Predict the 3D structure of the following.
Amino acid sequence: MTPEELVRDHTVYACVMGSRAFGLATEDSDTDRRGVFRAPTPLFWAFEKPPAHVDGPAEEQFSWELERFCLLALRSNPNVLECLHSPLVEYVDDTGRELLALRDAFLSRAAHGTFVRYAIGRRRKLEADVRQHGAPRWKHAMHLLRLLAACRDLLRTGRLVIDAGAGREPLLAVKRGEVPWAEVARRMNRLGEEADAALAGSPLPAEPDRARVEDFVIRVRRASALQTGADDQVVQRLVPGRGVG
C-alpha cells in the first residue's frame, strides 16, 4: 500500500491550515491542507511499518498517521494542536469525529513550554534576517505574533482559538512591512510576558490526559484488526502471492 493510497483511502480527518484557517488570507495566499490517516492495523505486522507521515500527494498537503499525530499532540506540538482546532474542516469520518472530541484531552499547561520554545526559534531566525538584510520576513513575523497571542489566550481561557479575529488588520499591517521591527519586537515581548503571567493561574491541567488518548488509539487499532475481510486483502498486498490462513 503506497503512501498516496493511505492518504486517499484511510484519511479520518482533513482540514485547511495556514493563513486561511488563521483568518489572515489574502488574494495570493496558498491553501495549506493537513490531515490524519489511520493505517490499517495489519500493516504494522510487517517488518516495514507504514509511514508516520506523508507529504502530498497534492501540493501543500501533509498528513500524519493517527498514532504519530496523537503523540505529537500529547507533547503539545503547536502545529498539531492547531490542526485539531482549524475552523476549516474538509473531511471527517466517525474516527475523525472521535479524535476531534478528544481536543481537550491534549491541552495542558505544557503548551506554554512548547509554544514558547517554538516562538524563540522562529524569533531567532527573524532577528538573523534583520542583522543580515535590515528587515525580517514580515509574513513570518505576522504569524509569530498570532501564535504568541493564541498561546497567551489558551493559557488564560483553556481554549485554543487559531483565528486572528479582531487582530487581523494589525497583523496584516505587519505582513505588509508597515510596522517597524522595533515595534514588532516590543509586541512579541509583551505577548510573551503575558503568556508567562497567565501560566500560574491557567485553567488548563498540568498534563494532558494521556490515558484517554491511548484508549482511543487502542480501540481504533483493535477495530481495524477485527475487520477480517479488509485485513486479508491488506496482508495479501503486503506479501504478494501469499494468502492468509
The first strand starts at residue 11 and ends at 17. The CA atoms of residues 12 and 57 lie 16 Å apart.
